Amino acid sequence: MKVLIVGSGGREHAIAWKASKSRHVDKLYCAPGNAGIAQVAECVDIGAMEFDRLISFAQENKIDLTIVGMDEPLVGGIVDAFEKEGLRVFGPNEKAAILEGSKAFSKDLMEKYNIPTASYETFNDAQSAIAYLEKADYPQVLKADGLALGKGVLICETREEAIEGVKALMEDKKFGSAGNTIVVEEFMTGREVSVLSFVDGKTIRVMTSAQDHKRALDGDKGLNTGGMGTFSPSPFYTPEVDEFCKKHVYQATVDAMKAEGREFKGIIFFGIMLTKDGPKVLEYNARFGDPEAQVVIPRMKNDIIEVMEACVDGKLDGVELEFEDNAAVCVILASKGYPESYEKGFLITGLEKFDGKEDYYVFHAGTKMGKEGFLTNGGRVLGVTAKGKNLIEARENAYEATKQINFENKYMRTDIGKAIDEV
């Protein structure tokens, strides 16, 4: 098979690395890719939103399967555009990708089909939202309705913060049109767990659990980011939680989307909060999480292409997912100043120490190739993943590995996976 991956981050590098090991793949492309992905795939200089150019490339190069890693092209209808040309593509169509594309839609869906989630209100104008927040209890959570690179969620401890948040989202358009509508949600407390799944429209196969660290600074302080590190599996995701979610969340979501005429094929990411009242859905994503993919995919035993093909063909009921009986931890090496302003173009050293090293993976997110070697080219630069027989060993291995890699203005959280010490 010839396979094309659409995207350029650490998630796409993890997908490309796994796809390169498939017995079915002869040739692997990635558009636009990055310097790390270029080690396992041929990178093509076409942007993820350039649908016509991507389709032409797929046709000219006789691509057998296109895998869309990013949210923006999925929500923008890339799957519909490919399918219209008779091309095989893995991911939800535009009608289904709204599960991530609109927070208001997903909240209304959960309410209609009794899928447990936080109570909420939706607002289309700032004054109505402010009037509601004047009388609300605190904290409150504000969510931009549309896509905001994983950063469109504001946790507001006070009325003043909430009003400022509404202005930032709806009036100042901090995240552009994503803030035209906002969801105001009750603040839930508890452990957060990420659960990824493959879906073929009717059948769902759940992957192993993970936990992300969204805040920029140690102790879960600072601004929300795209994710500063992950671990898998989550010790807080117990068999009881799994049983509850399989019954009330996972299949219920797939069935609800089908009932709405929005049959979902691809990846559904479930963000779950383990509250004192039981598990509740925080959010849905319509693709692999980033950096959750960097700990879940390396632990997956299955041939990822075979699973994706089963999703496209509606034959997922014949697939059983298998994961290694171990653990993985990913620590993001970022540029100092992320997620706000930061410098780029610094030389990265030490990557060669991981060539062929078993149970260690360096997934590139924001890198490019310069004359002297790999250079930083983004806020999140690398995802350093290590396995271990348990989470404590995996964490030790991951942090030891981060010491081997250096670049100017390197920044990372030092407490990824700290929660596991409490188990």
Automatic annotation (TrEMBL):
Domain ATP-grasp: 107-313
Catalytic activity: 5-phospho-beta-D-ribosylamine + glycine + ATP = N(1)-(5-phospho-beta-D-ribosyl)glycinamide + ADP + phosphate + H(+)
GO molecular function annotation: ATP binding; metal ion binding; phosphoribosylamine-glycine ligase activity
EC number: 6.3.4.13
SMART domains (alphabetical): GARS_A, GARS_C
Cofactor needs: Mn(2+); Mg(2+)
UniProt keywords, alphabetically: ATP-binding, Ligase, Manganese, Metal-binding, Nucleotide-binding, Purine biosynthesis
Pathway linked to the protein: Purine metabolism; IMP biosynthesis via de novo pathway; N(1)-(5-phospho-D-ribosyl)glycinamide from 5-phospho-alpha-D-ribose 1-diphosphate: step 2/2
Pfam families: GARS_A, GARS_C, GARS_N
Positions of transmembrane segments: none
GO biological process, one term: 'de novo' IMP biosynthetic process
Alphabetized NCBIfam families for the sequence: purD
Family: Belongs to the GARS family.
Protein name: Phosphoribosylamine--glycine ligase
